[in-house]
Specification:
2 copies of one chain form a homodimer.
Chain A lengths: L2 E9 L1 H4 L8 H12 L2 E9 L5 H16 L5 E7 L7 E2 L2 E2 L3 H16 L4 E4 L8 H21 L3 E2 L2 H5 L2 H9 L7 H12 L2 H6 L3
Helix pairs in contact in A: 2-8, 3-4, 4-5, 7-8
Pfam families (chains A, B): Lipase_GDSL_2 (PF13472)
Protein name (chains A, B): SGNH hydrolase-type esterase domain-containing protein
Organism (chains A, B): Paracraurococcus ruber
């Protein structure tokens, strides 16, 4: 009997895989890779475009519970958000960094009390250098939060900033979201992440 | 500018693509095909394993609103459920057919008042002939409901019952859910469906 593992991926458009012409996104790619390793992974993709950490606090709890309650033994939650918090509206970020940290702590604490939890930081934003710098700074704050809570954190901003497939995909697409090649680069980072491999071991 | 279309797929494990080693399911396959036709389709997969029509009535509304409210002009909802309603527990279906019809009417009416709506009937259940017969009967009742509400309905039970890839995939897997080849057969039915092609035209 192969292992029945169910994971909710909670986050924004980058979790949803927006812009990916293959319809896989990074979540679909790492899910298919888990099947190849002999894990029957059910991936519930709860990424929503434009969602901030504040939006996630409103919907994550009922959506995750509807999928993981009473659903076998092996379950987990993977978070990925932050980019939309840093978007400016009327010269102010949609969610100020202090509130983003507070939201992250609340989301992570709720989930980690119930299941194994991992978190990905926001990826690079190729269309706007100032927005990108805010995302990098927020990623560092999230890394510190996760370290304090003993939750594995994957910095995607640093590595993807040096990968042409990510930036070029975004520039070919809507300017923000990469294409399938960009998501493949992000999926490769997740695949190499020991915390992910441990979570999805056969 | 290519067309920005966002669709919520609301349903059960067959909508979620459970058992598909490629992580695409039929939803991922028809989404990738839409991109190939020049439609930037954001697919929100809201399929949850074991969900009945009663479960969907509890969660569909907030989950769909969180994804479609204020999200551009082109939006739609596609439903697919019924198989779990017909599962016996203590010799009774989890949801009796009359309640399934009532739930379907409520879900369809709510969504159709806001967006274009399509519905797929439950697929064949290879593991249990009696369960399969109940699903076929429920599919016919859903077809009549949709006809009365002028909502396009796709019978998947009839066509897939004659397609070896569906049955063989289920028998190779957990007995209920097909593998990628089975989901590809279902995706091909959806791709040939005029209502789907009209919804996803470039």
């Amino acid at each position: 009997m192969i292992r029945d593992l169910r994971i909710c991926f909670v986050g924004d458009s980058f979790v949803a895989g927006a812009g990916d012409e293959t319809a896989l996104g990074w979540v679909g790619r790492v899910t298919a890779a888990a099947w190849q390793r002999g894990v029957a992974l059910t991936a519930y993709n709860l990424g929503v475009r434009r969602d901030t950490s504040a939006d996630l606090r409103r919907r994550a709890e009922p959506e995750v519970l509807a999928r993981l309650l009473g659903a076998g033994d092996a379950k987990a939650v993977v978070f990925g958000f932050g980019a939309n918090d840093c978007t400016l509206e009327d010269d102010m970020p949609r969610v100020p960094p202090e509130a983003s940290v507070e939201n992250a702590v609340a989301l992570l604490a709720w989930a980690a009390a119930r299941w194994p939890v991992l978190m990905l930081g926001p990826p690079p934003l190729a269309h706007d250098a100032a927005h990108d710098a805010r995302a990098a700074a927020l990623s560092s704050r999230f890394a510190a939060v996760c370290e304090g809570m003993d939750i594995p954190f994957l910095d995607t901003h640093g590595p993807l900033s040096g990968i042409a497939a990510w930036r070029n995909g975004a520039l070919r697409g809507d300017g923000v979201h990469p294409d399938g090649a960009g998501y493949a680069a992000l999926a490769a980072l997740v695949e190499q992440w020991p915390a992910w491999r441990n979570l999805t071991r056969p």
